[in-house]
Every structure is written in C-alpha cells, then in structure tokens.
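Thread amino acids onto this structure.
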C-alpha cells in the first residue's frame, strides 16, 4: 500500500525520481481547473502501458529526452483514462457535464492515476456504452497502437495472413481482434495457457513460442507484428512472404534499437519491408475503436485490477510481464 496521502484535497500518484515502483507515492494535489477549451474529468479507471513503465524506470535512457525530464520525472504518471465530465472550461462545447469519456493524455500533462484530470476537449471521445469504465480505460494507447499497426501501417485486407507475436498482451489482444475485423487470417503466438483466450478473440492458428519457432515453420505471412521481444529481425524477415511487412509494436530495448536503426538496412536488397510503429494519440483512431467496440467486435481483456492505493503492486505486476491483457487501476 502507498503512504503519503493525508486525506485532504485530491489524491494523485506522484513519482519524484526514476527507478522502481518503490518511488511511487500518493499525494494531495490541488484540484485541476479546466482552462479555455478544456474539460475536467473525474477519473474512474486508468490502465497501465509499457510507456508508463518506461517513464518510471527511464529505460531506455532516451525517455529522459522525450518529455520525461532529464534528472527526474516532470509529469505525473498515467496516460489512459476513462471517467465522467465534471466541468467545462470556457469555450468547451463538445461534451456536457455527466458525459462518460475516454482519452489518451500522452501529449499533455498525463497524470491519469489521480481522482481528476484536465485536458483539451479535442482529445476525448464518448465511452462506448457496451464497455465498463475499466474496459474502456484500456482502449486509448494500446488500442490506437494496434489500429495504427494493423490498418494504417499493415494495410490489412480480407484474406491476408497475419502473425502476431505476443498476442496475449495489451496491444496484442487488440491487434488480433482488429486484424480479424478487417478479414485477415490470424496466427497468434503466445504461451499455451493463453490459447483459449486467443481462440475466443478469433485466432485461426496458435503457436506456443516456448515449443516452436514460428520462423522455422513452413507458413509465410503477409504481415507480422512483433509485440514482444523474443525474436530477431532475421527471424521476422525469414517468416515473411515476398512483398510482406514486419512492424515492431513493442518489446525490449534490443528489439527497439534493431527496429529503429537496422530495419532499413535489413530491408535493402529485397522486397520485404521491416520497420516499427510509433503510435501517437489520435482522436480519430480512438473514435474508430469506440465504434468497433460499440458493434461488439472489440473486447478489452483485463488481467488484474488494483486500487489507486495499490499502484506500487500494479506496477510491480506489470514489470514481471507475462500478462493476460491489461492491468487497470480503478479510482
């Protein structure tokens, strides 16, 4: 349990220095005020993402140059949220008080692990009624990343063969469903104890990465998404069809730097494309996700839910990996 909260004011998660979850604490902050064109939202739930973990541990070191603060974090933790509009700033007209909304605040002040958050009204979208606040809080960053990779970078069309390496995690769960939504034949790579989940989300074929190396099997793919860090660029390239594409969507530092620095070199001299997807907050894409979820074609999978006071435990569980979907902090 976190300590440091006195009971006065608004509760918010604070991180004063880079390191592990032990550096997180609860604090009293002044209640945010909605400025021109902003809305104030009472947060009901916020999900944990790889970006939250990287911002905590400053790994890779480049995080310090990407809005994280060089010597210590300069923004409060938490990127995704779902909640209810509490107040409107001057000129804000998209929503009314009481509307249930979702948002990705990566490009703003973040701070979603708190009772209240403020941001421009343009970054919010109405929460799909079919999703709970906890389920909706998982959508913005992970879902938009998956949509960007599958639809925009991968240009998936009916009949394409798609492999998702890491199909049971936060982004992988959405990528699998979105690829199926656009008519692909999907192979899910994950541990066998997560096969039932992947199958229930529409996977056509399942590979246990602990038993088989997908790149050594005879099947070749039009699109491969690497959502974890247990394969090399050479393996991904080998598993592609001529004209196929691989995109890194997540993974460890080795995969990140391979994708950023070596993918273009690896693509030279052939007709296979290798690259990475860098997702940015995008309200139009979030709107698409909410529409698909509203049609009942997109589910959020939650591994565990924690209270705000249990944020250290939530981060610790995230850092251990091998999750079945997302971790959510309920506020």
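Threaded sequence (331 positions):
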């Amino acid at each position: 349990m976190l300590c440091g909260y006195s009971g006065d004011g608004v509760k918010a998660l604070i991180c004063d220095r880079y390191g592990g979850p032990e550096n997180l604490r609860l604090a009293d902050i002044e209640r945010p005020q909605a400025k021109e064109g902003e809305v104030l939202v009472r947060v009901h739930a916020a999900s944990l993402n790889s970006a939250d973990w990287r911002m905590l541990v400053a790994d890779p070191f480049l995080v310090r140059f990407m809005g994280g603060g060089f010597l210590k974090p300069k923004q409060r933790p938490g990127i995704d949220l779902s909640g209810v509009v509490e107040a409107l700033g001057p000129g804000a007209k998209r929503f009314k008080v009481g509307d249930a909304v979702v948002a990705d605040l990566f490009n703003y002040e973040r701070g979603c692990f708190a009772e209240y958050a403020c941001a421009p009204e343009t970054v919010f979208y109405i929460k799909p009624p079919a999703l709970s606040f906890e389920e909706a809080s998982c959508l913005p960053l992970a879902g938009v990343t998956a949509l960007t990779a599958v639809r925009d970078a991968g240009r998936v069309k009916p009949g394409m063969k798609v492999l998702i390496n890491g199909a049971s995690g936060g982004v992988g769960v959405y990528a699998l469903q979105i690829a199926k939504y656009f008519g692909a034949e999907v192979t899910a790579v994950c541990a066998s104890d997560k096969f039932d989940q992947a199958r229930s989300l529409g996977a056509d074929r399942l590979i246990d990465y602990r038993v088989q190396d997908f790149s050594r099997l005879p099947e070749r793919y039009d699109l491969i998404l690497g959502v974890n860090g247990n394969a090399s660029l050479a393996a991904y390239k080998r598993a592609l069809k001529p004209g196929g594409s691989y995109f890194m969507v997540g993974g460890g530092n080795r995969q990140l730097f391979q994708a950023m620095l070596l993918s273009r070199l690896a693509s030279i001299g052939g007709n296979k494309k290798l690259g990475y997807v860098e997702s940015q907050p995008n309200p139009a894409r979030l709107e698409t996700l909410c529409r698909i979820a509203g049609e009942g074609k997109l589910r959020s999978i939650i591994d565990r839910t924690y209270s705000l006071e249990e944020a250290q435990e939530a981060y610790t569980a995230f850092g251990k990996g091998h999750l079945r979907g997302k971790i959510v902090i309920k506020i």
